[in-house]
Amino acid sequence: MAISSSLYTLTIIISFFIAQLVITNSQPILNSVEQESVYRVLDSLNSDIPWRSLFPDDLCSSAPHGVVCGYTTLPTQSDPGSVSIQELSFGYVSDHNPNPPCNPNSTLPDPFLFSSFPNLKKLFFYNCFTHRPVSLNSFSQLGSGLEELVFIENPSLFGSLSQSFTNMTSLRRLVITGSKVSGEIPSGFGLLTNLEEVTLSRNKFVGGLPENVSRIKKLKILDVSDNGFEGNIPVGIGELESLIKMDLSMNHFSGEFPVSMKGLKGLELLDLSYNRFANCGIPLFFSEMSKLKVLELSGNELGGVIPDIWGKLRGINGIGLSRVGVVGNIPYSIGVFLENLSYLALDNNMLIGSVPLEFERLEMLNELNLKNNNLSGRLPFSAKFVSRVGRKLEVQGNPELCLDKRVIGSFSKSNRNLGHLKVCKRVEIPKFALPHVSSSTSIGHQVQSLSVLVVIWLFFM
Q: For this UniProt entry, which segments traverse the membrane (predicted)?
């Protein structure tokens, strides 16, 4: 019985290995053109590593992390199908994402190298082109099936987005950040209607945003920050109803904010800071973007007052209104409705009046910048509030702001800047001289009684 069980177990094991061998032998093999092209790309990015000897077998069976195959023809009982390279990711990111590392001499000598991958869906480079110049045009021959084209921190990457890039009609992600890529966005950009993310930050782009960007209805992220873009925001920008993040900061955009922006109902982050918008105020229609979490308008001479729109923007956790030229009082409604607010910058404006007592209610607030305004009166915060915000409570540059003498010592321990505020003056009780009226008349008695009441009232106050 024991021998019979052992034979049964052995039979199962042998059957399992035979089945695995059949499956392994039936797997399709990567064609030699793509196999060789992968080796050439790896060698050009890092020739210090012997890629061919480390990975001598079929790369669809054994390949470096970041080299991913996929079926182009599904297998059947009689046909193992066919495979090809579908993802190539280069540049070591982390231990959890150990793509093949690049070295400082990384380059791409053959501009048509990537045309060998007709079914490529994703191409990713992180910190690869750092010393030797590599042209973005080397990638313009990628197929129309490409879905993700990502370049992150490649300071030697140069060139421009030529019109040929608009042929990549399947593109969902276009990320070029931290490079020397320049020029204008091509006029056919709006043809890329499958785009969900466009991140072109920290490059050398110029010109304006194409008007036909409004045709990219699936767009969720639009980030063109830190470039040389100029001109107006396209009027049709409000048609991008799927947009969650729009960051146009640190450019030269000008004009007014188009009213169509109120159509961005799903927008969570809006950053228009440090551009050249001027004399248009803070629009009331921002209140219709009810899902906003971050509103950044700093560094634009907008003028006007801070509108009382905060009752409709209760989800906001960050407001940047530094150097926007606003005047008037700080709306107390900010402290009433924005219970999630963690960051508020109102510095370097011309705000007047007192600091709203309602700010004390903002339990999530950990950064409050009110410096360099014309605020006045007593700083209305408790020791608990000052201790929580600490040094990120900035109120210097408001000569008429003051602290009660009894708290100035404890407040200074949490924030040395508060020690420079002047001490609030004590409210003096006015002294009234009693009039000398004869007590012989009834009027005299009434005045004398009234005078006594005034003295008693003053005593108890």
A: 7-23
